[in-house]
Design goal:
The structure holds 2 protein chains of 2 kinds.
Chain A (H helix, E strand, L loop, with lengths): L7 E2 L4 E6 L2 E6 L1 H7 L2 E5 L6 E2 L4 E7 L3 E5 L4 E6 L2 H4 L3 H4 L8 E5 L11 H11 L1
Antiparallel strand pairs in A: 1-2, 2-3, 3-9, 4-6, 5-8, 6-7, 8-9
Chain B lengths: L1 H15 L16 H14 L20 H7 L2 H4 L11 H18 L3 E3 L5 H18 L6 E5 L5 H8 L3 E5 L1 E2 L2 E2 L1 H7 L4 E7 L11 H10 L3 E5 L12 H4 L3 E3 L2 H4 L14 E3 L11 E5 L2 E5 L16 H40 L13 E4 L10 H10 L6 E2 L8 E4 L7 H16 L2 H5 L11 H6 L10
Parallel strand pairs in B: 2-3, 2-6, 6-7, 7-8
Antiparallel strand pairs in B: 1-9, 4-5, 8-9, 10-11, 12-14, 13-14
Helix pairs in contact in B: 3-12, 5-12, 6-7, 12-14
Classes of the chains: A alpha+beta, B alpha/beta.
Chain lengths: ~130, ~450
Amino acid sequence: MEVRENLLYTSSHEWVMKKNGMVRIGITDYAQDHLTDIVYVELPEINKVYKKGDVLATIESVKSVSEVYSPVTGKVVAVNEQLENDAGIINSSPYDDGWIAEMEIENEKELGELMNAEEYEKLISKDL
Amino acid sequence: MKELLLNEIEEIEEEFLPDDIERKELDIPNISRRDVMKHFVRLSQRNYGVDTGFYPLGSCTMKYNPKLLERVASMEKINYTSPLQHPSTVQGNLEIMYRLEKALCAITGMDAFTLQPAAGAHGEFTGMLIAKAYFEWKKEKRENVIVPDSAHGTNPASARMAGFNVIEIPSKDGRVDMDALRSAVDEKTAAFMLTNPNTLGIFEKDILQISKIIKDAGALLYYDGANLNAIMGKARPGDMGFDIVHLNLHKTFATPHGGGGPGAGPVGVKEFLIPFLPVPRVMKNGDEYELDYGSKLSIGRVSRFFGNFGVLVKAYAYILMKGGNGLSEASSRAVLNSNYLMEKLRHIGYEVPYYGRRMHEFVLSLKNFKERGVRAIDVAKRLLDYGFHPPTVYFPLIVDEAFMIEPTEDESKQTLDAFAEAMEKIFHEDAELLKSAPHGEMGRVDEVKAARELKVTWKDLR
């Protein structure tokens, strides 16, 4: 299962990428593998402020329905509209084409509470 | 005859139907009667149901549906009545509902039931509306409903639909984590929804302590009756401290379901909640049965007429057929069958998370198959090749690659052994064989494509 070096992670399997004062959010390779084939994604609302831990998106796979939690507090400025046509992109490219949303982060300090790649790798290896 | 009818229809059309909504040609399939008959009879023969084979679909209690129940429900005296008749002319129907309510009270330890809800989730929703009405009447602002992470997905959905916020708490060793429950409960808690035995088939042995925590906080304890089949005649939710209970008559009380008929999800309450039950309620006044619409606090109707009356009749017939001892015996055998099969499968090498005695069902984890690239869905599909309906897969969510088996009380030892034998063969089979199953005429249905590219009518296929 791929864990990328330059990203930050949550224990609920979201990844966060820092990008000039903004963050890009998606779910990890481990998460997509567990969900199996994804068939539908309910994307967050643009311009809406989500608090850390709020439900940001809902992902439906053939197996179950799962929620994506906001890893930080901030305003959603962009969503990946490609997912509306083909939610399976999350399966094939969870870290690149399968990103879910971009947010303007309110408090940079919150990023310090997230895991680095090494810590996340440890978390999922416990699970396996 | 046909001419006459067509003339009549034309007259009616001319009189009542505006020209602009009249269609001259209808886009409906044009197939001979004979071909239609052949098609549907063939489909019915290809169908797989509780009358054709083992159906261990966990959480669904696919038990045998006694044919006597069908005969009772189709008796002229029952079948030729209408819900619009005056109560004085359908005293027998009302008596059945009244007596069924009393029987369900005796089985569950509750004080009154509404028979209106049409299914389990509808019962949950009704129960949550009752909780909401109760706290509104008490003028208490309680907006949270707590559910364990092992709950049926319908629990949080029903609570949310009734306007509550849902708080999920983790499980510990396959049961409610008492510390997590204590820290989640506060003065804003409206209810805690619990299935007992839970979805892992484990009895929540701390139930009296759980009940005390909820009562001390002034909240309500809600019983999801999906698993009542494990404890009939042994233990009663009412005695455990539950305030609201829903039952699934189509599971526990043997009426057909899963394509075989509608359900019924009666909701029972303790005395203090009776005023909030839906109306009308069937009451007995001397020797007469009557419909009571009186309660000002009632949440109102939740179904047209009296719910799925035919299902109620069948469930009542089942209860009478079994009697108290028979229901208790059914639970004993359901639990025996489940533990027997679990031990057989465990002996083969299948993993049982939180291993220990189970109630009427058990959950395997097939996560060890993943090393070979095989998942629970592949094993489920392979079971089709052996002529078995697969168990429930990927539920409960707290078990990785969950495989949830509920044999029910009606299966013989031979059937359980035959199933275990198929599972043993599968355990040693080649990964490729499993991943490409089933190997029959149909092959593997592409579930992903089915979900991504919905075809909801035959017209989409033209």
